[in-house]
Amino acid sequence: MREHLTPEALKAMAGVSEFPKPADRSALPAAVQRHYPAALRERGVTGFVLVDAMIDETGKVTDVDVLPSPDGPPHQAVLISRDRATGAETRRTLGNSTSDPAFGEAAKAALREVRFTPAMRDGQPVPFRLRMSIQFAP
User: Fold this and answer.
1) Residue 117: how many CB atoms within 10 A of its CB?
2) How many other CB atoms sit within 10 Å of the CB of residue 101?
3) So what's the pLDDT on residue 72?
4) DSSP code string of 31-50
5) 93 Cβ neighbours under 8 A, 6+ residues apart
6) pTM for this predicted structure
7) Element (H, E) at 8
8) Which end of the chain has fewer CB atoms within 10 angstroms, the N or the C?
9) What is the pLDDT of residues 105-133, one digit of tens each?
10) Which DSSP symbol is given to 115?
């Protein structure tokens, strides 16, 4: 049986009481669509980019590193959601990624446009390195 970490356990491991998140929920998807490489969009190519984003204490993205794809076949992104009322878990495979470097540059540009709420520790905003996957889908 696989153990799932709760959000509270993850926050405790990271030493924060709140993780950073986009201040406007629609800002990141909109920025990703604006920066979607046109040639890849036209061909219907889907991509996932794993990034580490440094978010300062004001919520500004100050640095983005694109992490290398694992060796072997393209990885699959799986979205896991939990129904708050029932606790039921739903998994949805989002698709295979490509390793086109254009997606990495587009992810970096999109993230630099988005303002986040900062991570919080002891009631104070703190800088935080956040790892996330950015999806590009036509």
Assistant:
1) 15
2) 11
3) 46
4) HHHHHS-HHHHHTT--EEEE
5) 76, 77, 78
6) 0.75
7) helix 7-14
8) N
9) 999 999 999 999 999 999 999 999 999 99
10) B
